[in-house]
Design goal:
The chain has three helices and 14 strands. It is α+β, with helices and mostly antiparallel strands and about 180 residues long. A five-stranded mixed β-sheet has the order 7-11-12-1-13. A five-stranded mixed β-sheet has the order 2-5-6-4-3. Strand 8 and strand 9 form a beta hairpin.
């Protein structure tokens, strides 16, 4: 049987003029965002960006909270990932840029191997290792349940699909599966 490959997906912030959202707490309930309580958030929110004519609208944005592009969202739906989310329109009014993103809530799974390495207070994973038994039946995109921080894990076929569609501004790190 062929071994499935999984990747930790992040945004590539280094060298990229990533979208910087201004004053989002004026438009969204901070606690609802932190707790991912989608019912307390509007269906669509317009968020204003710091003006930058060179902004790269990457397909994954991690700060100040997780956002994925419409293409990433659509591919998630195509793969039947049970994701929920709210639409966020990122707007740079000065330069006339607007892009649709989604604040997703991907399913979370207890998936870490006992070999996973944490920092001293267990708040950050230093080396993420997946347990092959725990990920047998997970969807192609999911998050790690054992930690507070967002760790978005994607299966190789999903990664290939978004790359074929021109994914940009993302960083991939292949994960060990034991």
């Amino acid at each position: 049987m062929r071994r499935m490959r999984y990747y930790l997906l992040n945004w590539e912030e280094t060298g990229n003029p990533v979208p910087r959202i201004r004053n989002w707490m004026e438009r969204l309930d901070y606690q609802a965002v932190q707790r991912r309580e989608l019912a307390k958030l509007p269906e669509r929110t317009i968020l204003f960006l710091e003006e930058n004519q060179h902004t790269l609208f990457s397909d994954v944005i991690e700060k100040p909270f997780l956002l994925v592009s419409k293409m990433f969202w659509d591919v998630s739906k195509m793969y039947e990932v049970p994701v929920r989310g709210k639409e966020m329109v990122l707007l740079d009014g000065v330069n006339g840029f607007a892009e649709i993103y989604y604040m997703p809530v991907y399913p979370q799974y207890h998936c870490l191997s006992e070999e996973t390495v944490f920092n001293n207070d267990y708040s950050v994973i230093q080396e993420l290792i997946l347990d092959k038994e725990k990920i047998k039946y997970v969807p192609p995109v999911f998050e790690v349940a054992e930690v507070e921080k967002d760790y978005l894990i994607c299966r190789l076929d999903f990664i290939e699909s978004i790359l074929r569609r021109g994914a940009k501004g993302i960083k991939l790190a292949e994960l060990k599966v034991e």
